[in-house]
Amino acid sequence: MPLSYPYRCPGTPLRRGLAALAATVLAAGALVGCSADDGLTGSVDAFLAGWRSGNLDKVGFVDPTGARVPAGTVVEEIKALSGDLAATPPALRHVGEAEVTKNLATTTVDIRWTLPGGADWAYQRPLRLRQNSGDDRWQVIWEPQVLHDQLAKGDRLTLRRTAAPRAGLLDGAGQPIVTPRPVVRIGLQPGEIPDVAALVGRLDAAFRAVRPPISPPVDLADLPQRLRDADPDAFVEVVTLRDEAYRQIRSRIYDLPGTKFRAEKLDLAPTREFARALLGTVDPAQADDLAAHPDRYAKGDLVGHGGLQGRYDERLRGAPGTTVEIRRPAPEGGSTVVTEAFRQEPGPGQPVRTTLDVATQNAADGALRGEKRRAALVAVRVGDGAVLAAANGPGAAGENLAFTAQVPPGSTFKTVSALALLDKGAVTPQTVVDCPKTSVVDGRPFKNSDDFVLGRVPFRTDFAKSCNTAFVALAPQLGPDGLAATGRTLGLEGSWDLGADVFTGKVSTGGGPTEQAAAAIGQGTTVVSPLAMAGVTAAVARGRFEQPKLVLDPAPAAPAAAGPTLRAESVAALKTMMREVVTAGTARALADVPGGPVYGKTGTAEYDDDPAHTHAWFVGWRGDVAFAVFVEQGGSSTASAVPIAERFLRALR
């Protein structure tokens, strides 16, 4: 478009401007561009900076008719038009050369909004400016279309968020652990209840009768107040039960006055207890979630809490979809006009595949069912180290003791001590080792459980009967670091990367004679987790340590390397002794368990200065399944841990 009169950049002498114009017309025809430090560029830059900061006092504005517009008015209109995006102004960039015709200029602005959830909405808009004839200043021609071509005065940008389909946790067969399962929502209609107190009492009794017990118990303390506050015909929800739990008490509650029932489906694991502490839960976003991550979560989102659901929440939940809409006020008698300006479809979550086996996990959960003390049972496949089950109790306990407990292993650690002694050639299964009632080391007495005495018997008998004093007498042959060295060949103290938090143990080292004696029987400063001991047991059964595996996809970045092949003669001897624990020792209750021979070791571990305060353990394997049972404050292992192991093995057939 040819210029009809000489154009002069602000601050450029007219004579020099005419010369420049002549050269430009000859060389390039119609367009004149100003240098980066001229008034036109300065006005554009000032406008873009002021748009983001909310201060446009350094910019002059006119409307398309040329009428002056106050800068404050433009600030308010930008804020109103931006609507839901007002708190996060876009990134703005002046691109290309300006086109100038007489006293009008048009340039291009790149506008890039970062939307909640990380979506980018980018587009370009023309920005028009008019040069003031009085002082040569360039003024921005303000109109709503500067923000977006479809905006008009009174419009506002709004955000609509679409949650992505949440992916699931998969078992070792690649099948979803959590699937839609039938539930019943139990509620009350206030207007139909003649006696609230009596009704609450009968509901409470019914809920307490559910087996396994509902954990945590249904709290009805605020129910009377909620009923008083609700409309007479409202549905006041009391609890949502799995269908199998509801059917247990249906006959007791179905005909109670005011009770209402809604059958639905929810995404749930096979049972309430199913590896719950390991898997975690998925719940609506809580207040602390929204406060901590306002850019990530919105009210109503499903959020993983704890366990694998929490650890892999970002992967599982995917990316929410975002739609930017233009809302135009409704004309008189009409409805609001909504125009879609931008859409990003939700990105579905990606599943997390685990090694868990449904049948093994159900057997483990069932074995702990009814146990009132805190307890854990973890099972590992001998062949490849896959974690098949991780159960925690009582009920659906929230802490994954199976992986993270840090407790003394007691006599289960004689497995490690015996292997170390066999490797050193200090004993064979037939070596006679005295088992007195008491052994004193540097003035500290060590006793056997219930003060039993075996006398001079083969080492295999000391192991099978779990004689503390025999191991205390042998401890000096291991030296201050022998146990720790052997423990490390079995995976203890290793850096395991299996996709979940795990404590791999801490083995006593460098101690004096008393500490060495205590360490030989799994006391002193040695502490482990059930998974660490299951890993030890699987290593003995396999003949080499392999790090337990839990999450297969995404594959952990740095799993521990396999251990060295264990000395065959030592492993064979230890296996023989661990079998004798079951056939003639402290775990004889497992001798008639069907499904193949059981190998193992019991353990009773003191955890404070009172010898009567003990944890109970059993570690062992049958076939291709190694496992560890731990009962906090369980007392005698034969009375608590071994029966749990028996229930597990019988259910696992």
UniProtKB/TrEMBL annotation:
Keywords: Membrane, Signal. InterPro entries: Beta-lactam/transpept (IPR050515), Beta-lactam/transpept-like (IPR012338), MecA_N (IPR007887), PBP_dimer (IPR005311), PBP_dimer_sf (IPR036138), PCN-bd_Tpept (IPR001460). SUPFAM superfamilies: beta-lactamase/transpeptidase-like, Penicillin binding protein dimerisation domain. Residues 376-648 form the Penicillin-binding protein transpeptidase domain. Its main location: membrane. GO terms for biological process: cell wall organization; response to antibiotic. This is Penicillin-binding protein. It comes from Micromonospora wenchangensis. The lineage of its organism: Bacteria, Bacillati, Actinomycetota, Actinomycetes, Micromonosporales.
